[in-house]
Design a protein that fits this description.
mainly alpha; three-stranded antiparallel β-sheet; 12% strand; elongated
Length: 182
């Protein structure tokens, strides 16, 4: 879940992520989105190219996520589930997780956290876009990170993360101050 949140991945990108595309050891650790899981009738049928040309992207990893992925890899190895060409997130049998299994697991997590049961895995992507756009103030960069075709799509994912924007109050103060005769 941390990978989906911190990288803004689509559910199919999370389900289809394989270890060859996860670089934890270089000077600039990253995840390359080069493929995704393809499902037909809620059944995994193989790997496919990303949704769009812009969906092919490389995302730098935060140290917190690097540590989490390293631990996950170690745990997979202990359980006999790690394969160098295998899936990063798989079932107990080592098979790819279906998106319906991911949705169910995420909904259960949200229920246990007291958040309700109407959450989907896309909430991770929306949260990523909202949090990153709040910090970057550059929607084009956010669209690139999310693999969106254009910023209009990104706008649909972006939600306000602050109660109000303090600079709007300052702008109105300045405007009104200059408009009021002295």
């Amino acid at each position: 879940w941390l990978t989906g949140l911190m990288c803004g991945l689509r559910p199919g990108e999370i389900a289809g992520l394989r270890w060859p595309y996860v670089d934890l050891d270089s000077d600039e650790p990253s995840i390359e989105i080069a493929e995704r899981a393809l499902e037909v009738d809620d059944k995994y049928v193989g790997q496919a190219t990303p949704k769009t040309t812009r969906s092919k992207r490389t995302i730098g990893l935060h140290p917190l996520l690097i540590a989490a992925l390293e631990r996950h890899k170690e745990e997979q190895d202990l359980l006999g589930l790690y394969e160098p060409e295998g899936f990063v997130f798989c079932t107990r049998n080592g098979t790819p997780m279906t998106m319906s299994n991911m949705r169910r697991a995420f909904r259960t997590l949200c229920q246990r956290a007291g958040l309700g049961d109407d959450w989907t895995t896309y909430e991770l992507r929306h949260s990523f876009v909202s949090l990153v756009s709040d910090q970057l103030d550059d929607l084009i960069k956010v669209a690139d990170l999310a693999g969106h075709v254009d910023t209009r799509t990104t706008e649909g994912y972006r939600h306000s993360v602050r109660q109000s924007l303090p600079h709007a109050i300052g702008a109105w103060d300045s405007l009104l101050e200059s408009a009021i005769p002295k």
